[in-house]
Amino acid sequence: MINGHGDDIYKYKDQIAINFSSNIYAKQDMLALHTFLCLQLRKVHSYPEPDASSLNALLAEKHQIKVENIQVTNGATEAIYLLAQTYQNSRSAIIIPTFSEYEDACRINRHQLRYYKDLNQIEDNIDIVWLCNPNNPDGRIYDVDYLIQVIEDHPNILFVIDQSYASFSNLPVLSVQKTIAYKNVILLHSMTKQYAIPGLRLGYITAHSSVIEKVNIYRMPWSVNTLAIEGGKYLIDNDSEQINIEEYLSESKRLQCKLANIQGLEVVPSPTHYFLCRLKDKKASDLKQWLIEKYGILIRDASNFRGLNEHYFRIATQSPDENEQLIKALKGWI
User: Fold this and answer.
1) Are residues 325 and 262 in the same domain?
2) Full DSSP string of 216-260
3) 1 assigned to some structural domain
4) What is the pTM of this model?
5) What are phi and psi of 191, to 5 degrees?
6) Where are the alpha helices (DSSP H) in 261-299?
7) Do 99 and 229 share a domain, yes or no?
8) Do 14 and 57 share a structural domain?
9) What distances in angstroms separate CA 268 from CA 112, 139, 282, one per listed residue?
10) Digit-coded pLDDT (tens) for 251-267
11) Residue 32 has pLDDT above 60, yes or no
12) N or C: which end of the chain has fewer CB within 10 A?
């Protein structure tokens, strides 16, 4: 789905002053990365590694696993489409509401689709379960022990678990080292989200070596470009995660509480920095347009998530000052 995602700031030119629509935290000082990438520009005159092997090796070392258990991709989105192709014509279950690309990738690759609101509703005649954990758009996180139990109880179902937002919560998620022992689990990871580099497009999958081998049959060469590979290695080597997650989540909790006190607005509590809001009797699309025109504030209209409706929008926590401006603006509209 090209249209309908968050962070559609490109549509509004210079109108946007504060962007609450993207789940990527973009407040880090990226000057060192920018300087490094400029020094790598000469390398664009040669082909990149066909399989991003050097970045693969570095990530494997970071996770203390073998390179046979990991594969770098052009963002987590390439991984989603690659997996849907690898297991084409499968019977897939998607836990909703969630990221639309699971559904789109499955449709392109002729999957039979079913939708469930909770993992405990899945049936044994399913081939694949697609689960975002922490989930986008509501931040829901499943308990690790519960997930392992479900995985072990359904050995014939492949669980594709997208942990792209794992860096934005202090709750535990599935361990890479533990899950690579299971032949029915694939974890998706996003360096795009973790390091705020959506323009570089970096993600990777971790899984049992037999799964990685099967997926790589369908993988096209050179899908990850040279600057992305070099940038990814730089970020890992320099330990470039700059988010104070405790402070950030504390601000998110404060924002959620403030918004929940506004009459006519409900907040879905989230253990991450992003969360859903529901207008009781007004449309999110109208609110979005009003915020843009009046304050230059951009939110994510969440009405196009399967399982939600026209009253829902999503917020990603920003700085305390920017959050106060959002609170004031919402009070003025509702």
Assistant:
1) yes
2) HTSPPTT-S-HHHHHHHHHHHHTT-----HHHHHHHHHHHHHHHH
3) no
4) 0.94
5) -75, -25
6) 284-295
7) yes
8) no
9) 30, 9, 17
10) 999 999 999 999 999 99
11) yes
12) N
